[in-house]
Design a protein that fits this description.
single chain; alpha/beta; TIM Barrel; six-stranded parallel beta sheet; three-stranded parallel beta sheet; 15% strand; globular; binds fe (ii) ion
């Protein structure tokens, strides 16, 4: 499997705090059927893009060296989770933030209520710059729960939806569970990922959580959302 959304890279955000935790998260990931894990630390501060890239890449190198030493054959790939605000327009070149240097860009919005008037503009800006936006956990946004029409408008822009495995098993409440299950069943969500942050609850153990999936999610759904489509994402193929 391929997990395209994680906060496994140490000391970058609210995810893994140190290298030892990153290594354990990678070990768990590999032991749970994952071959490739994309490291997607939160990116908020557009004025410090170069610093962010430098810090991230330095830590990825350290993690790769540690994985080799520990004989954990998990492929770890660079990425980021881009926080969408009006500040997105300030940075000239966001190429380094894409998933593994592809055209695919993982994005998130605020989970709290906010004025949605610019949401479509943010996506259009990214599309104009030739990126293919992937929206992380659409099932978790207050603004989507309040406004289904906004979901339709975002989908009409061709935005790819990635739901969290946690949400599918009910860890983010029944509303997020119902919405994420429905999105996978109807093919609206094309990717499932861990969005892992820690070793306890928001962990990298995919198989453990897949065993708790509701029966309506089929093996074919899992294969599509955790293998086929993510494979195309990390190799920059159209989906
Ligand atoms: Fe995330």
């Amino acid at each position: 499997m391929i997990d395209i959304h994680s906060h496994v890279l140490f000391d970058m955000d609210d995810g893994a705090e140190d290298l030892a935790t990153s290594i354990e998260l990678c070990r768990d990931s590999y032991m749970n059927g994952c071959d490739s894990l994309v490291l997607t630390p939160h990116f908020f501060e557009y004025s410090y893009l170069e610093d962010f890239i430098e810090e991230r890449d330095m830590r990825i190198t350290l993690l790769q060296e540690a994985l080799e030493k520990e004989r954990i054959p998990l492929e770890v790939l660079p990425g980021a989770e881009l926080f969408l605000t009006d500040r997105v327009f300030g940075a000239d070149n966001l190429d380094e933030l894409t998933i593994n240097g592809t055209k695919y860009m993982l994005c998130e919005m605020s989970l709290n209520p906010f004025d949605t008037k610019n949401v479509i503009r943010w996506f259009d800006e990214l599309i104009d710059r030739s990126y293919k936006p992937i929206l992380a956990h659409p099932e978790r946004y207050y603004v989507f729960h309040e406004d289904y029409e906004l979901i339709d408008r975002v989908l009409k822009r061709g935005i790819i939806f990635q739901v969290n495995l946690d949400s599918l098993i009910g860890a983010n409440g029944s509303l997020a569970q119902d919405m994420s299950v429905d999105m996978v069943r109807r093919g609206i969500a094309q990717i499932i990922a861990s969005d892992a942050h820690d070793l306890d609850f928001r962990h990298t153990r995919l198989i453990e959580k897949l065993n708790e999936l509701p029966d309506v999610i089929t093996e074919a759904d899992v294969e599509r959302c955790l293998i086929e489509i993510p494979k195309k994402i990390i190799t920059n193929q159209d989906i």
